[in-house]
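Morning F.,

Quick status update on the modeling queue. The single chain you submitted on Monday has been processed. Sequence for confirmation:
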Amino acid sequence: MASSVDSRVIPLFRVFMPPEEVLLPRLRDVLYSGHVSEGEPVYEFERRFGKYVSAANVLSFYSGTAALHAALVLAGVKPGDEVVTTAMTAEPTNLAILHAGGKVVWADVDPRNGNLSPASVAERITPRTKAILAVHYSGIPVSLSAIRRIAEERGLPVIEDAAHALGARYDGKVIGGHSEYVMFSLQAIKHLTTVDGGMLTCRDPEDVPRGRIFRWFGIDRQAPRTEVDVKVVGYKYHMNNVIATLGLVQLNYIEEIVRRHIENGRFFDRALQGIAGLELCAWDEEAEPSYWLYTVLVERAGDLERRLAERGIQTSKVHKRNDWHTVFAESRRELPGLDRFYERMLHLPCGWWVSDEDREYIVDVLREGW
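Structure tokens below.
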């Protein structure tokens, strides 16, 4: 059993950066190239990222939030339209709906994993619904088969928020091509970071030129600037060559990073079985998580969080359920599945920095009780 005086600290998050001797020459080249805004490194990053997630149509943005805003607009969401979504996510997921002028409609979650409940999604759809926004929470793929079946029956697009789920799979296919739109976050603590950034995959290739205009003031960058006619409202949402270069270097390491998250997650799946007061998340047979975080369901979650902190293991709920925020007050409704999940859930360190010794130590401490 691990010593009670162990001085280690195992962080919940850690930022991966390639070795200086690999990264800095590439950054130096682009910084002094005279071309630091959107250019060829951005387009190369889009192509290579697309290959990793098996998607042909990829748009880059300066944030995942901007990518979600674009997805909602491309999906046709206009002021007053409803978007069925989850309150169990980071706030930007649902703020993007407000950015597009849409109305947030909460569906409940599966208390076993925090992902949208397909049955609840079906109940929340009305004639005013324009899209379904599904989050793969903590890297566990949502029940895509059921949600897509509901969406197709109602003629609605699905927007996947895969901020936590780079490298995850569903029905044997990597997350990135199952739905009309899939957003990936490249924010600081994600599997792959460009400090800030986002990617959007689009099923319809015609969305790519529309998205490029949307992310650049409503202007076609390929046309002579003095000859363009701005016909739609656009934004300054584009990615630049500097962070794209960082992303290109990071892609050389992403398979190793994701593999380690998955190895640690599957270790916990086996090693945490049978601990009194602790339940593991459950998901569809078709789902293969990428374990951005490792979520456990426990009684007295606050007591466990304090116990693990005493032993140098950082844990957290990470996100405040969005329906508790004043900005979403008009959307409030009873969400019993979320009540149960949020009361019990706690995230454990699971990333590339968690060594074999660290994960054994985490299991030992959990087995001691709280």
